[in-house]
Amino acid sequence: MGKIKIFIFGILTALAALVFENLIPIIFLKTAVEATSPFDVYLLTAILIEELLKLISIWKISRISENQKNIFWLAVFFGLGFAFVEIFLNILNFNLEFVLNYFGLFLIHTFTSTIYGLYFSKKESFSVLGGLAIFALGCFSHFLFNFSVFFDISPILTNSILAIFLLIMGKIGFLAKKKKLN
């Protein structure tokens, strides 16, 4: 599967997440909901939906990929596609308050996707316990990002930390591809 197709798959997955995030409150609460706190049930549900769809999608990519070592980099392109949708929709909503938050959206979705990609690039088979652990890590990372945005914790600090984690993941992915890491 080519990188452009994976990028588009990331876009489609983000759109599917958006549909689910908006339909679930309407179905269960009979009303549309807007997040008012990082602990809001709607926001926590949105994180769970986004991360679950990313995990399932990257698992599917790992199942059809010819080369196990490419999964990590395909996950990066998937995360870029996913982030593209959120950034684009924020711009369409004229939510131009802080450009650094857009960079954060790019980083968090790419970071959580690379976590899943790294996990699946190292695993021959899926274990439920391992999948739950990696899913929990992705959800927790996403929650921390949302928490920092809601409480205006320095976007520069938040994005710097995410960028460092993403660089570490990239280095691990590079080493794994070069067979220096087992």
What does this molecule look like?
There is one protein chain. This protein is an all-alpha fold and 182 residues long. It has one domain. It is 79% helix and 0% strand. It has six helices and no strands. It has helices at residues 3-29, 41-64, 71-92, 99-122, 128-150, 155-177. Helix 1 crosses helix 3, helix 2 (41-64) runs antiparallel to helix 3 (71-92) and helix 2 (41-64) crosses helix 5 (128-150). The radius of gyration is 16 Å and the shape is globular. It starts with a helix and ends in a 5-residue tail after the last helix.
Calculate the terminal CA-CA distance, rounded to whole Å: 24 Å
The strand count comes to 0
Low-pLDDT residue spans: none
Query: Helicity range of the residues?
Result: over 70%
- How many domains in all? 1
Q: Give the H and E element order.
A: HHHHHH
Radius of gyration: 16 Å
- What does the overall shape look like? globular
Approximate strand percentage: under 5%
